[in-house]
Amino acid sequence: MHRVMFFVIGYCLLSVAMVPTAAQTGSVEARLRSLEDKEQIAQLLIDYGRHLDSRDLAAYASLFATDGEWVGGFGTVKGRSEIKAFMEKSLGTGPNRGNSYHIMSNFAITVKGDTGTAWSRWTFVTPGERGATIAQAGRYDDTFVRENGVWKFKKRVASNDTAPPGK
Amino acid sequence: MHRVMFFVIGYCLLSVAMVPTAAQTGSVEARLRSLEDKEQIAQLLIDYGRHLDSRDLAAYASLFATDGEWVGGFGTVKGRSEIKAFMEKSLGTGPNRGNSYHIMSNFAITVKGDTGTAWSRWTFVTPGERGATIAQAGRYDDTFVRENGVWKFKKRVASNDTAPPGK
Amino acid sequence: MHRVMFFVIGYCLLSVAMVPTAAQTGSVEARLRSLEDKEQIAQLLIDYGRHLDSRDLAAYASLFATDGEWVGGFGTVKGRSEIKAFMEKSLGTGPNRGNSYHIMSNFAITVKGDTGTAWSRWTFVTPGERGATIAQAGRYDDTFVRENGVWKFKKRVASNDTAPPGK
Question: Are B8 and C11 in contact (CB under 8 A)?
């Protein structure tokens, strides 16, 4: 029985011996969590454009935290239902007939515990009679919060590098 | 010897104690696999554009499952060799002289076991005498299958948000 | 005491039993490291454009290895301070008044130990009076090296698919 036990303990030691290597820049759990957090926040950045472009403004507003805030060319608005109403007013409640869309790119995401920040680029494309043109472009500066286990926009600031809408 | 054993067992317990935390949203294995699957599928989406734009249509066709299907502006085609022949007919077998290319963006990937789905955007750019223009743009709706351990397109539906080719 | 010990050993065995599954395509450590390496290199590709577009040429040059090299439409240059001086000469030392920017996309990254390679696309956008246009576009072929634990450009070759600047 002792031989078996030593064998078992040998395996345990092997397992333990791997921990310091795995923990080279943090525990396996912390490293996995960091990768998952960035993946989930990247998905949030993509869902923002997807729901906006498909005019699913209920799904769009749900990407914000309870007290989430949006700041951009249309103005400033805070709170999920307020954001939804604000975008309905700015974009209308009908479908996106022109098939305009956002290319989301250049994500620079940082995470610390249950908060995070991101910088990214948006390129707003509008199809025309022949091909498509870039109608607007700019940057996003975001802060995030993990609310009930899900990453949400705490504040999104959309800056324009081209003339804002209506100008 | 008992002191050593308790020491060893103490380490084992420490290791065991970390498992529940690590398994907060699944086992380490499941979480790693999920991240890897998404990374591999994202690479598949990128390789699609890369091989298409470089006119490596053999490599392009190899990205599809054995019974993989392509649906888009050129028509519908099923099977690897059929897809290769179809694209050779649609695009020609010569080099991509115009250096046209696809910007692949906004990947929304979901995985369940050995199957997966994705939604993404494509922006087709054609260089001209001065700079480049967006000649076409649209979306991809994909289903994937893990075939012999490698993710492949089961079905790719390419939708156009601009006029399709030849219209 | 023996009951407790068997209980403990049982847990250890359980933990050990999970290792072969986890190691399906390498150890947990190797798999985590692979995902982290690709994530860090993707960030390097994004930081390149971010620092270049914001004209933070000191931060830009710091992304290269000590003997890092840049090859592109402006010419060829090697060494961090040389790269900084070269870009200052090519782009000027003032702010980026036109708000031009790079869309970085289609990252294909491979890593082997402390070296890596990548292929990716760049689309250079210049805002105008109405919307924005693609002024240039091309590809990057990169080699990387992990220097003091941080991924750096060993060599970046920027190819143009449109006419290079000044042509």
Answer: no
| Residue showing tokens 């990205």 | B63
Place of tokens 């006119």: B55
The CA distance from A41 to B30, in Å, is: 20
- Provide the strand spans (E) within A5-147: 64-72, 75-78, 101-112, 115-127, 132-147
CA distances from A115 to A86, B146, C11 (A): 26, 35, 35
With contacts defined as CB-CB under 8 Å, which chain C residues touch B99?
Answer: 161-162
Closest CA to C44 of C59, C25, C23: C59
Is A162 within 8 Å of C134 when comparing Cβ atoms?
A: no
Blockwise average pLDDT, block size 10, chain C, 167 residues:
45 38 69 98 98 97 98 94 96 94 98 98 94 97 98 97 68
In C, residues 100-159, which contact A (CB 8 Å cutoff)?
101-105, 125, 127-134
The ipTM of this complex is 0.84
**Cα B80–Cα B83–Cα B85 angle in degrees, nearest 5:** 110
* Interface subset of B 32-51, CB within 8 angstroms of C: 32, 35-36, 39, 43, 46-47, 49-50
Number of other residues whose CB lies within 10 A of the CB of residue B2: 7
Q: Within a 10 A sphere around the Cβ of A27, how many other Cβ atoms?
A: 14
d(CA C133, CA C126): 5
> Contact, B103 vs B125, CB < 8 A?
yes
Judging contacts by C-beta atoms under 8 Å, the chain A residues touching residue B18 are 27-29
